[in-house]
Known about the structure:
This protein is an alpha/beta fold. It has helices spanning 36-45, 60-63, 66-73, 160-170, 186-196, 201-208, 219-225, 234-246; strands at 5-11, 15-21, 27-31, 49-54, 78-81, 93-95, 103-109, 112-118, 127-131, 140-144, 147-148, 151-152, 178-181, 217-218. The strands form 3 sheets. Strands 1-2-3-4-5-6 form a 6-stranded mixed beta sheet, covered by helices on one side. Strands 7-8-9-10-13-14 form a 6-stranded mixed beta sheet. The longest helix is centred in the last third of the chain and has 13 residues, at 234-246. The protein starts with a strand and ends with a helix. 49% of the residues are buried.
Amino acid sequence: MADLVITAVPCLRDNYAYLVRGTTASAAWVVDPSEHEPVIAALTAAGLGLAGVLATHHHPDHVGGVPGLLAHFGPRPVAAHASDRDRIEGQSLFVDAPTTGFVDSGLVIDGRKALAAHIPGHTRGAIAWYLPAEGSDDGHVFTGDTLFAGGCGRLFEGTPAQMFASLTLLCSLPPTTKMWFGHEYTASNLRFAAVAEPDNDAITQRAAALPACTTPTTVALERATNPFVRAGDAEGLGRRRAAKDEFR
């Protein structure tokens, strides 16, 4: 089976939405459309329709474009975690994924089962969408605002223990798994990472070679350089998250 085609679509100031499709597909799934105009423009430029929407959580900068997409293309499935019921306009699929692992969501993208896991911490209903690659470890996971390149999301509705468990689950995927995240915060995250782990040469090397667009990252890279993944326990993550909240 050929790999998926995933296109990052810059939105708002520093958000990413994603188009996800097979190489011969006529329509794409869209992950986290914060606004509809750039997503429609990207779909149109690629000659694609809209297959459906995968939302990682309810924040408007991740789902604000859903109504506009549905108005433009007509009714389509909009999938998010079951605990985000009544928080995402247009949500029609309520996926009751667990926090303990990835399970079949019931959705299929280009012949692949889309797996899902509940990853609370940033919000109570955060969900990760995982598309494993048949016969290899080179899958894709969409992490929203739970895991960023070199960082993690603020704890708006969750606890350090929840975030630590969610990051541990995400980084238990195969090392080459591509991780597609919600915001271009990588340069700032790595500046903090260098303070949190001043003797970590991998952080220094990563920061020195950043491209303009840093998505996707990989599980292996986050294990080596993400201070929240590497915190050791929930208490350590909590201390680092509090320090990052004050970091400038």
